């Protein structure tokens, strides 16, 4: 299948539910239905995990913070030990900043070279398109601001989490499309 929306069957095919979020020993709320994911991390950090992704894909969605959030975003995992290494795409409405940073264990390495500042509207509905093809991240925010970064040499994306920190957020119109490039060879014979 070339692409799909995350309907009921799509969720089951795409997602293996791994864990709910916990903070301070308290279970935090989350919900996922059709093409929408709602996360309540108002008491701390909360995330929903997805795995079994195609090698190359396009992920698009609209994100709307429902309360003032400290930050929210997506963590992309690389390698076999999920969630220890990878990249975090963080939306920081307070600083009007979007950054793509390396994850290394429990630490986030902020890289100001891979940050966009003065991104307006992060506290309102924001349109995001992400293309991951081979070793490349290509990210577009509201069809006007873009980022581009290479994934580390041994870093195939094996899964991702959508998350919220100290706030509630809704991801809607979520679509994941597998990218397939066809190579056509045309042979002509002359007489």
Describe this entry's structure for a reader.
The chain is mainly beta. Helices cover about 5% and strands about 55% of the residues. The chain contains 1 helix and 17 strands. The chain has one helix at about 10-15; strands at about 5, 20-25, 25, 30-35, 35-40, 45-50, 55-65, 70-80, 85-90, 95-105, 105-110, 115, 125-135, 135-140, 145-150, 155-165, 170-180. Strands 1, 4, 5, 7, 13, 14, 15 and 17 form an 8-stranded antiparallel β-sheet that branches. Strands 6, 8, 9, 10, 11, 12 and 16 form a 7-stranded antiparallel β-sheet that branches. Strands 2-3 form a two-stranded antiparallel ribbon. The radius of gyration is 18 Å and the shape is globular. The model is unreliable at about 1-30 (pLDDT under 50).
List keywords for this structure.
191 residues, mainly beta, eight-stranded antiparallel β-sheet, seven-stranded antiparallel β-sheet, 1 helix, 17 strands, 53% strand, globular, disordered N terminus
Question: What would the principal axes of the Cα set say about the shape?
Answer: globular
Rounded average pLDDT: 75
Strand content: over 45%
Radius of gyration: 18 Å
Q: Can you count the helices?
A: 1
Ends distance? 41 Å
Order of helices and strands: EHEEEEEEEEEEEEEEEE
Furnish the topology, listing elements before pairings.
Elements: E1 3-5, H1 8-14, E2 22-23, E3 26-27, E4 30-33, E5 36-40, E6 45-51, E7 57-65, E8 71-78, E9 85-92, E10 97-104, E11 107-109, E12 115-116, E13 126-133, E14 136-141, E15 145-150, E16 157-165, E17 168-178
Antiparallel strand pairs: 1-17, 2-3, 4-5, 5-17, 6-16, 7-13, 7-17, 8-9, 8-16, 9-10, 10-11, 10-12, 13-14, 14-15
């Amino acid at each position: 299948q070339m692409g799909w929306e995350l309907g009921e069957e799509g969720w089951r095919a795409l997602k293996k539910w791994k864990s709910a979020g916990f903070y301070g020993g308290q279970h935090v709320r989350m919900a996922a239905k059709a093409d929408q994911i709602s996360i309540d991390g108002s008491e701390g950090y909360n995330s929903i995990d997805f795995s079994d992704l195609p090698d190359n894909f396009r992920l698009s969605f609209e994100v709307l913070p429902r309360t003032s959030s400290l930050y929210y975003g997506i963590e992309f995992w690389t390698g076999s030990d999920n969630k220890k290494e990878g990249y975090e795409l963080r939306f920081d409405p307070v600083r009007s900043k979007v950054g793509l940073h390396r994850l290394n264990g429990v630490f986030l390495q902020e890289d100001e070279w891979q940050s966009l500042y003065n991104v307006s509207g992060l506290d309102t509905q924001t349109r995001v398109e992400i293309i991951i093809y081979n070793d490349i991240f290509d990210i577009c925010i509201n069809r006007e601001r873009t980022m581009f970064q290479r994934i580390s040499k041994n870093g195939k994306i094996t899964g991702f989490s959508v998350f919220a920190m100290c706030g509630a957020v809704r991801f809607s119109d979520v679509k994941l499309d597998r990218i397939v490039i066809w190579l056509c060879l045309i042979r002509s014979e002359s007489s």
